[in-house]
Specification:
By secondary structure, this protein is α+β, with helices and mostly antiparallel strands. It has nine helices and 14 strands. It is elongated, with a radius of gyration of 22 Å.
Amino acid sequence: MREQILALLLQSPDRYISGEDIAQRLGITRAAVWKHMDALKKLGCELESKPNCGYRLVHVPDSLAPEILSTYDFSGTLKRCHFHYTQQTDSTNDLAKRLAAKGAPDVTVVVTEAQTHARGRMARPWTGEPGTSLMFSLLLRPRMRPTDAPKISLIAALAVARAIETQTGLTPKLKWPNDVLVDGRKICGILTEMSAECDGIEYIVCGIGINVNQKQFPLELRNIATSAYLECKRETSRGQMLLVFLTQFFALYDAYLATEDFAPVISEYAKQSALIGKTVTIEAFGKKSEGKCIGFDRDGCLVIEQEGKRKRVVAGDVSVRGEGIYV
């Protein structure tokens, strides 16, 4: 009901709407209208009220609460999702896994304003500033082989790149397997985890952190991290960024599940790769190797060339030194 009230106020930003009018339109009592208005204020909406005139919406916060997000959801993307919103959690991935253990359904989206124990790949800490970062996890229960699970990271990275470009006009690059870069610096990290048995996947949790409106970073991160704000010099709606991401992710994900053809994803991913043609160092299982990145195979694995021979890299931490890229 709060979503409907907010939508009514957004439709008439320059005039007041009486509580009686809202009550009649939505079939609720005046007392219920007052309670919902109070709830909207607690969400951060700035409302102006005037006796004998009603209510006017002055400002909508950049909140990830479902009541706020629904006002931007013109395509109905959220209707497909089981949305779980919290002001703060330890980690959206860990919360998603706890929800999965309790039977949370396919396509559960866990969103938070702040994380106390966020992490990236290789157990590295992830810094996300409350109110400026977009931090969320997807809980998926796909019918696919466990060996195909890494493809979800590539689909998510491509969807992030599309969302950033759509919302900001920036041209992101993809650093296999889990990072999105702008101007050689990290703007998004992705951590995908899985629970599976030999014959199938129980669930996949794909955690995503996008630097949206950070105006600065700690000194030790300034050369390796960036945000949409720092690149564009203007704020971007985190809610709209999330909705565009979900729309793009589902388009790629559904097409892959329907056809089992990963070639379209790989083709687009390769065009946006920050690695192709560069000499890369891969660290995996305590060993390092080096080679020239020449592309990706049909399963999304990195392909490098070493002494004239091609090598397929299934997993690992990739770095590029001295190439204008953050690592």
